[in-house]
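Posting for a labmate who doesn't have an account.
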Amino acid sequence: MMDAGALAFAVFGPADGVPAAGPRRPGQLVSALEWAAPRPVIDPTTVPLAELGLDVPGVDRRFVHFCAGWLSANASDEFWELGRSFHLAWPDYRATVRTGLRHLVEHRPLDVDRWHDLTGVVFRDAHELSHYLADVRAYLGD
């Protein structure tokens, strides 16, 4: 595989003829879908929180990692998995994420270009991004 400035992801499913119990051997899995997700421009491990408008009480780097990881191009539509993992997380992590989402929705410190640079997800405008973040916030029970 050559580096084209993107990360490659694949989804595997059972091959034809695999019993309902699921695959048990490597040959019983086949690639069902492959796609490329954009490589983030912003490094979530080093970007200053203030540069993203997230230097506020209750928000720390874990929230930036949450956005770049769970809300990124390869995971942004996996709400069922997000919810399950979120509710098993430590209470202080959940509080940080809830505070960060509330701040993003209420104050809109990130425009769609900065959001794309962090997550690889494209939105048409700030209203659409804010609506999506409000949906995530509501889905997580805040």
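Reply:
Got it, the structure tokens are right above this. The beta strands are 6-14, 29-38.
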